[in-house]
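tool=predict chain=A
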Amino acid sequence: MHNLSEKNSIIHQFIGELRNVDIQGDSMRFRRNLERIGEIFAYEISKTLAYVQQDITTPLGIANMPQLEHQPVIATILRAGLPVHQGLLNYFDRAENAFVSAYRKHHKDNSFEIKIEYLSSPELDNKTLIICDPMLATGQSMYLAYKALLKMGTPKHIHIIGLIASAEGVNYVKANFPENTTIWLGAVDDELTAKSYIVPGLGDAGDLAYGKKV
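tool=predict ok
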């Protein structure tokens, strides 16, 4: 597991702006900060991938340089994950893409269950899969999205991205995902409420990025 908040970097400023109620009203800036953090995660993940040496022809000669051996598949849980997805795609610009629609179906007793509505994905056998979602609360949405994606094949490695996670959600992912999984986090908050909201968290990332839903 890699928690990028454990070292000082510009990611603290971006996450601080995501949390800040005085800045959250600017939905364009909120989306852009999600995208910029996605770019940071892409760069960090790129350090773990396999590379091959290739000769690159320049106007003056040949440069032998390491190049990415295989592009990853970037998967996003709709809708809040879309700006993070774009940030990853800005760097892995030749990557294949997958999309999963997951939502909380609430019941009268204030309980809820996670429902998967839609899946669009390439074949995943023996590929590197990156699944991103801004909030890792209970971890159940991430896990169910992963289970749905397994219909398209078995990845050789899974990278899980959560910008803000609860300690409970992190433990759930550790307990339920296979050993070939790496977790990437921007921050970990200790509290998860009875309604499964992260505290202090930042609120509803989807609403802040795209407006309130009915």
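DSSP finds six helices and eleven strands in the chain. The longest strand covers residues 96-106.
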